[in-house]
Structures are given as structure tokens and as C-alpha cells.
Amino acid sequence: AQSVTQLDSQVPVFEEAPVELRCNYSSSVSVYLFWYVQYPNQGLQLLLKYLSGSTLVESINGFEAEFNKSQTSFHLRKPSVHISDTAEYFCAVSENNQGGKLIFGQGTELSVKP
Amino acid sequence: GAVVSQHPSWVICKSGTSVKIECRSLDFQATTMFWYRQFPKQSLMLMATSNEGSKATYEQGVEKDKFLINHASLTLSTLTVTSAHPEDSSFYICSATAYLAGVKNEQFFGPGTRLTVL
């Protein structure tokens, strides 16, 4: 059975500092990987995804994540965060034979301080 | 494109009443919709998978008679919380999958519905 582990429940950082949010998964088959962001009292917004091809994927607002098959990881990084990046971030995995069913990690609360 | 709406965005009801939440795909046809619930400061837990024209598939531990799901068309799925109790208070989020221009296995999420049962 697949599972997703986000090792850090809370990550406080100062503005303009780099950040890494960690995500590890377990699965016996090929997977699709996603990062979603959730602002308070809102639904989820897709940040970036890995389906196939290049293992490094980027979002339009400066985030990137790298799929590492040998380490079963999909860590999210940003070289310089803004106050507006403060939100909850969820890593999710979908096995490509499960009809799109997503399994979410526990979430990481990113708090950017001035 | 690929917008999903939910209605209502929030609802307060008395214990014992039933509440219906709608999930609509506005600009695409969704053959599959998913329903999640999220408790404060926690992750999303999948409740059920809903395919148009067939019965929903519920996750283990989710009472299908408590949470009735109907997916009558390719753009609408409804979740009815029957005889709601305070412990059903939660944030309910739906999502829909679309097969557009080669996109597959990606879910588009609604904005969520905050249910408070008094």
C-alpha cells in the first residue's frame, strides 16, 4: 500500500531565506507526485506535479521539486521565500493504476516571518 | 479552465438534520469526483470515489449510509450528510478528474465547504 510522509509538520523561516519541505513516499509501482498549497479556509491549489520525463519540475512562483526514485522522495524547495508563501503544503502521490486516487501526506505548515 | 465549485461554502445546521453539499465541474466533464474531509490542522482524508452513473466507492471506515453520494451527471456530484452530529463538523472538499489535452490523473479541487453542526 502506498503512503506519504512529510517529515516536518511546521517550518518557520525568515523572508528571503531558502526553504526545503521534505516528502517521502512508499509504493511498489510507478507513481505520479504532486505538491498542493492550501491557504486558510480555502481548497487546494496545485503547485507542481511530476508525471514523467524530467525529474526536476518547477512552478510559476519559484518553487521546484525533484523526483528521486532511488530515495523515493519529492522534496519541495524555494531559494528565497516571501511572506505570501505562508500556507499549508501537502505532498500527494497517485499510483498510475488507481484511477487518479490521491494519498496525501500530513502537511507542512510553512510560516515566513519578516 | 478546469474549475470546480462547491456550494455552499459554509453551512451551520442543528444536530439531527441533513445537509447537502454540491460539487460542480464548471468547464469540463468529470467522469470521476472525489470527496475528502479535513479536520483542523490535519491532512485530507479520502472519503469516497464517485463515478458518474454508478455507486460511489467508500473508503474503509466511512459510513455509506451516513454520507450519501450521488453523481448523476458529468458535472455534478452531491454529498449528503444525513442526521448530522457535532462530530461531523469538518471541512469537506471535493475534486474532479478530467481528461483534457493529455492531462490525466490530475485532480482539480473545489474551494471546500465548512460544515458546523450545533
Task: Explain what you see.
The complex is a heterodimer of chains A (114) and B (118). Chain A is built from no helices and 12 strands. In chain A, the strands form 3 sheets. In chain A, strands 2, 5, 6, 10, 11 and 12 form a 6-stranded mixed beta sheet that branches. The radius of gyration of chain A is 14 Å and the shape is globular. Chain A is mainly beta. Chain B is mostly beta strands and 118 residues long. Helices cover 0% and strands 52% of the residues of chain B. Chain B has strands at 4-7, 10-13, 19-25, 32-38, 44-51, 57-58, 67-73, 76-81, 90-97, 107-109, 113-117. In chain B, the strands form 2 sheets. In chain B, strands 2, 4, 5, 6, 9, 10 and 11 form a 7-stranded mixed beta sheet that branches. The radius of gyration of chain B is 14 Å and the shape is globular. The mean pLDDT of chain B is 89. At the A-B interface, β5, β6 and β11 of A face β5, β9 and β10 of B.
Mean pLDDT of chain B, as a whole number?
89
Q: Can you tell me the overall shape of chain A?
A: globular
| Rounded radius of gyration of chain A (Å) | 14 Å
Q: In terms of structural class, how would the helical and strand content of chain A be classed?
A: mainly beta
Strand content of chain A: over 45%
The rounded distance between the terminal residues' Cα atoms of chain B is 37 Å
Q: Calculate the mean pLDDT score of chain A and round it.
A: 91
Poorly predicted segments of chain A: none
Total E-strand runs of chain B: 11
Structural class of chain B: mainly beta
Helix content of chain B: under 10%
Largest interface: A-B, 24 and 25 residues
Count the helices of chain B. How many?
A: 0
Helix content of chain A: under 10%
Strand content of chain B: over 45%
Q: Profile the largest sheet of chain A.
A: 6 strands, mixed
**N-to-C series of helices and strands of chain A:** EEEEEEEEEEEE
Largest sheet of chain B: 7 strands, mixed
Number of strands of chain A: 12
**SSE order of chain B in H/E notation?**
EEEEEEEEEEE
